[in-house]
Structures are given as C-alpha cells and as structure tokens.
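This entry is set out below.
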Amino acid sequence: NPVEETRPRRRVPQPPGTTLAQQQLANARQRIDAFEVAQTLLEDCIAHTNGERVLVEYYLAVEQLIIDNGYALSSEAPIQRTPWLDAMLEVMQRVEHVGTPPEE
C-alpha cells in the first residue's frame, strides 16, 4: 500500500546505551539462569525425595523460589513479568502437565 510506505516509521525508544540486541541477550541470559536454577532444584528433589512425591516437592520448591525472589503469585498483586519469572512459570506449567494423570 503506497500510503503506508510514505508514513515515517516510528522508532521504539531505547534506554541510553542499550541496543535491542543487548536487551535480547540480557533477557536470554535471565532465562538460561532460571532454567539452570530449576535444573539444580530438580536434582536436589530427586536426591532427597522418591516416588511420586518428587514432582510435588519440585513444584513447591520452584514456587517458593519465585516467592523468595520477591514475586507475589497471589491474584491480588499484579505480577511484574521478567524473563526469569517467565522461565520459572514455564517450569511450573510443565510440571503441572507432567504431573496431571491422563483422563480415561
């Protein structure tokens, strides 16, 4: 559409000294750090728990870690989303999915 082509493109403001690539890299590092912490928690739960309790203990440990890092998981308080938190919430969702028995 020729009208769209003549409009000036808006630039998304970037914080001083930060490029989009630098922000994406920082976000990716936060996610990696979160997944590494989650992996360590899982290994600890496996070492100290057996049977079906492993997933329950792991889920609770991840949830506690989120709370210990200053995130409120209650519905009253809005959650400030970060790449670290998103990764941890993804871990919790995966545990819920794996831990849910299949419907017959």
About this structure: The radius of gyration is 20 Å. DSSP finds four helices and no strands in the chain. Helices lie at 2-6, 20-48, 53-68, 83-99.
